Amino acid sequence: MKVTRMNRTVLTVLTVLTFPPCAEAQVRASEPASVSQTVDGTKISLEYSRPRARERDTLFGKVVPWEEVWTPGANWATTLEVSKDIKVNGKALAKGKYSVWLVVKPKDDWILVLDSRHRRFHMQPVDSTADQFRLPVKRQIGPFTEVLTWSFSAIRADGATLGMQWGTTSVPLDITVEPSYDMTMAPARAAPFLGDYTFGWSGGPQASKPISLYVTHENGSLMGRWDPSPFPEWDRFILIPIAADWFVPGFLDKGKLYDVEKSMVFEFKTVSGKAGEFRVRSEDDQVIATGKRKS
Amino acid sequence: MQTRRHFLIRCSAAFLALASGARPAWAVARRARVGGPHPTPRPGITAANVLTKEQLADSPKLIPLFDLVREIPEVVDGIRCNCGCAEAPGFYSLLSCYEGDAMARACPICQGQGRLASRLHKDGKTLDEIRTAIDARYG
Q1: CATH class for the region spanning A187-292
Q2: From B3, B10, B12, residue closest to A284, measured CB to CB
Q3: Which residues in chain B are closer than 8 Å to A234, comparing Cβ atoms?
Q4: ipTM for the complex?
C-alpha cells in the first residue's frame, strides 16, 4: 500500500514538472478548497484539498494508518493562516501561516500539529520540533461526511468553532481571538456618566412617547438601557469606551456581546467632572440623537 | 417598531445618495474600514481641487461639508481615509476624497472623517489629536 502511494506521488510530481497544470480545467480526486472567517477583525483562513470517502469502509486506521502524521486534506498540506494572535483550545498561537497535521490514534486523544513550514506535500509530514504548536484534541463520532470538510460551525463575539469532518469522525477546535474592545470600566472612570438622561432622535420617525436612557455600572461595565426601547430586540447595551468621552454600543444576546455598532457613537459632554448631555453621531458624523441629564 | 439597522440606514445621508444612484462603490466602501499610517501633509497643499458648489449642483446637501474641508486642506491632507479608497490610484489623503471623482459624494466614512476633522480643528485640536480621534472612530 505504502509503495503504491509513494509511486503515485513520484509519478504525480514528475507529471506536474513535465506538464504544468492548467488551473482552469483540471479534474482532481481531491479538489482544492478554502474557507475563511473573520471574527472581531481576526481573519482565519484554511486552504486544503478535499478527499472523498468513496465507499472505503474504514478511513481512520486503514486509509489513514494509526500513528500516522496526517494532513487533514490531500495533496499539499492543509494550511491555516491567522492574521492576529489567537488561542486554539486555550493555547496561544502566534499570527502566521502553518501547515496542519493530525497524529491519528486509535484510543487516545489525537495530536494537532501546526508547523510554520507550511508548504509541504502530504507525503512529507513534518518531524517533531520544539517550536511546533502541538496540542491534544478530542476526536468525536457523528453523522457521515463524504467529502473531508473544514468549517466554522459556530461564531461568537470572541471566537469560533472550527472543525474538520470526514467519514464519521470530526475534530472540533475552539478558537479564541484577541478582543478589539475593552468592555470593562473602573467605577471611578464610569462615575461621571452614571444617571438618567432624556433621549430624542434628531432624524427618522419620532417615538410615540419620550424615551429615557439610564446609564449604570454593572459587572465592571458601563451599561445603557432605553425605556421604552426604540429597537425591540435590544433594550440594554454596553457602552464601550473608544476615547475619553466617546462610546459605541455593544448589544447583548442572552447576556453575551453579540454586535458592536461602531457607526453609532455616543459623545458625552463633561463639565466639572460630570456628564451633562450627549450626542449620538452616525457614521457620517451627523447627529442622529441627543440627550440631557435628568438626574 | 423598527430594527436598529433600518433606523441607522435611514439616518445616513449616504443612503439617500445611493438611492439616487450616485456611487455603486459605496456599498463596498461603507464597511471596509482599512487602517494604516496617516500621510504627511504635502507642503503648500491647497484646496484648489476640492469640488465647488457648481460641481456639486446635483448634491446640494453636501456643499457645506465640502466648504468645511476647503477651509483646512493642510489638515485634511494629513489624514488617511479609512473607507478603503486609500488604495485607489492617485489617492494621497482624505483630501483626495473631496477632489476629482470625490468619493465623499457618497461615502459616509469619507464624509464623517471630513466633518470630524473640521469640528475638532475648530475646537483647537492638533493634527495628531485629530488623527487619534479619527482612528478611534474609524480605524
Answers
A1: mainly beta
A2: B12
A3: 4
A4: 0.80
